[in-house]
Amino acid sequence: MKKTSLLGIVAVCGIVLSACGSGGGTTDGSNAASSSGKEADKQEFRVSVLQEMPSADLSLATDTISFTALNNVYEGIYRLDKDSKPVPAGAAEMATVSEDGLKYTIKLREDAKWSDGEPVKASDYVFGWQRTVDSKTASEYAYLFEPVTNAADITAGKKDKSELGIKAVNDYELEITLTRPTPYMDYLFAFPSFFPQPQKVVEKNGDKYATKSDQSVYNGPFVLAGFDGPGTDTEWEYQKNDTYWDKDTVKLDSVKVSVVKESSTGLNLFNDGQTDDVILSGELAQQNANQDAFQSVKEARTSYIELNQRKEDSPFMNEDLRLAISYAIDRNAIVNSVLGDGSVASTGLIPSDMSKNPETNEDFTKEAGDLVSFDKKKAQDHWEKAKKALGKDSFEFDIVASDDDGTKKVLEYLQSTLEETLPGIKIKPTPVPFSVRLDRSNNGEFDMVLGGWGADYSDPSSFTDLFVTGNSYNRGQWSNEDYDKVVKESNTTNAGDPMKRWENLQEADKIISSTAGVIGVYQKAEGHMINPKVKGIVHHAAGASWDYKWTYVTE
């Protein structure tokens, strides 16, 4: 399939910023400094994030906050460049791929080291991949490895992890075998779940591995410091890694991270000079949109509602009830009046500006059309049908979501519009800390949950694969045979036929959206106030990592 890059691959991996300041866009911090001012004596960047970090374990992390950290303190075979294209990182050069697309030979750089001085070897990749797919690890991201030979059977407990299709030919050469051609494999090589892991350190620390910053070692441009525990710590730091192979181009000495959930608090900190980057939403984003320091970047991320269908007697098994809720949501009102940060209304499950038709280059969402919309009459028609079929006139549901400022406002809107449009429905907004929301989602402790997904790679399958029957990220456990069939075809029968695969993915989006299996609400953007003295920032909506060649300069 024709690979496409975008401003927004892998939004799940990073806080998304655009280039800022007059040096915007360059990846060379020294150039930015010379054109915009001299380098500051203290190369320290202070950033605010909305939530605590749920995990610093490469095999267990699943969220934006965690992956942002992991991409800055670890490094894989590839990393994404300023244009969101995979380029060699831990690899010495791009992989050699067999003609049938099933065998990758990768030569690793011999100067890469862990932060304890030990060399990064091919065996570290083998160990890391095997640990993630091992059924005992229970990694939610193990499904991403399914193109790799025997991965699915290993995760299912049918084969030993030693049979995974990755082997160390020698200390600095990997051989990877796949079961099917995988158009987005290069992007997976730049994704944290596929990074190497130091076997001795993992085994030495056991259950405590990566639960604190001093219980791991790192091979990225920074090392994690001051992290005291997943889901609870509100401050941590990335410090320059002196053992990193490209350390001479790393301009920043440190990045200090603090959790700030309220936009008003963040803005006060920014205006007082106590932080260099803070996220704004709602009225504050709208009020500051014309400020020079304000930046808004759309992510390849869809925020959606999942409806709990785990039990056969769940009212959400009724399609009319699901459609009533979907049609009752005015997505334009949410992005324009509630968020005001540049987010756009969803038209389906797949975000825009992420993937293109391999023949016509048409954007996926433009070709798909409006698969979800606000329609009060249709909402009420489906509502009456649902009540009749379920034999009830009233329902009470909670909506679980994260407790940051912007999301809480969206919850309030959803409560208001659903109760107003669908007489007899009562909604209980339930904002909780990010890590709690993830736990409750995984355990099925919700009626409805407002969550979301950012693309792990530049392909619609990063979204469509999530909701096949049995996928660990299908938290509501919606199930549809036709959906499963077309997604399976896209990954198997039609994996080598770009247009047929494209048609499968279009049909999958149509099925899940038209039945409200999952309800797409908005495509997330983040509004930031960014210190203009920070020059040369390249921030991938995709990606993962901040460009580590940032420079902090004085005017």
Please explain how this structure is put together.
With 555 residues, this protein is of the alpha+beta class. It folds into two domains: 44-257 and 531-553, Dipeptide-binding Protein, domain 1, CATH 3.90.76.10; 298-527, Dipeptide-binding Protein, Domain 3 (Dipeptide-binding Protein, domain 3, Roll). It has 17 helices and 20 strands. It has helices spanning 29-36, 64-73, 122-133, 151-155, 185-188, 199-205, 263-271, 282-287, 319-327, 331-339, 364-368, 376-390, 405-421, 434-443, 461-464, 481-491, 498-514, and strands spanning 38-39, 44-49, 78-80, 86-88, 96-97, 103-107, 166-170, 173-177, 222-225, 235-240, 254-259, 277-280, 294-307, 344-345, 395-402, 425-432, 448-454, 518-530, 534-535, 551-554. The strands form five sheets. Strands 12, 13, 14, 15, 16, 17 and 18 form a seven-stranded mixed β-sheet that branches. The radius of gyration is 23 Å and the shape is globular. It starts with 28 loop residues before the first helix and ends with a strand.
Proportion of beta-strand residues: 15-25%
| Share in helix | 25-40%
Count of separate DSSP helical elements: 17
Number of strands: 20
Compute the separation of the termini in Å: 46 Å
Structural class by helix and strand composition: alpha+beta
The CATH homologous superfamily name of the largest domain equals Dipeptide-binding Protein, Domain 1
Shape label: globular
Compute the CA-based radius of gyration: 23 Å
